[in-house]
Amino acid sequence: MDLYEKYGNFQRGVFKRRFGSWNNALNEAGLKILKRNNIPETELIDDLKRVAQKIGRKTFSMDLYENNGQFSRGIYKRRFGSWNNALSKAGFQIYKKMGTYNRMDANDEELFSNIAMVWEKLGKQPTQANLDSNISKFHSSKYKRRFGTYNNALIAFVKWAESGGKENIEIPNLKTEIFINESDKGHKTRRDINWRLRFLTMRRDNFKCKYCGRSPATDPLIILHVDHIKAWTNGGETILENLQTLCSKCNTGKSNL
User: Fold this and answer.
1) pLDDT tens readout for residues 92-105
2) What pLDDT, on the 0 to 100 scale, is given for residue 108?
3) How far is CA 194 from CA 93, 113, 190, in A?
4) Which domains are seen in the chain, by residue range?
């Protein structure tokens, strides 16, 4: 597989996803299956560390490893007894199937809010690799299982944001609902700005600060905020027309108008 990656056009993960394993791909092509026995334990552990660094995770599933690693899950199970034993031997956290990155019960709103959060941090449309990094709560594979492809997930996310969050899930219409919380008296909307409105505001403003023009797309140290144009305390509502994108520095220096 290493020799192929040196001269081939595709990544090893493509063959593993399509055929199940590298040897299955060789067999399908009518080529001789290469068998390598007695792989040193240090080499197996080193590859776990290499994959962890590549994907930016402190723990990961066997599926995620096989999409990026050199060896099959069976080798680790035979050598260490279990996948978690192998992770522990390499100094990583034990992988929990129902943990943060692999929750099977995540709903559409959680998945879409995660895309909005990653999009905001990057200042540009996130790629699959971005969702597979440690800035994302969910792996791209979850989006593929839910929507078929990652591109379909992005299309569904934009529809969800533009429809007011009413695609497949029920959330309040922020422009019309009246809230009875004591702190909300005199307002038609909540003070808090949800992920849908944050995304729509930043997309409208091209993910740039309206004051200084800086963006995390060109400077990763820039942190963007979504701020009320007319301050909430002065009667401003939490609607798209009254929101703007500011960097943390400009937002700190802004006075309530």
Assistant:
1) 887 765 344 445 56
2) 84
3) 32, 9, 9
4) 2-89 (no CATH), 103-162 (no CATH), 182-253 (1.10.30)
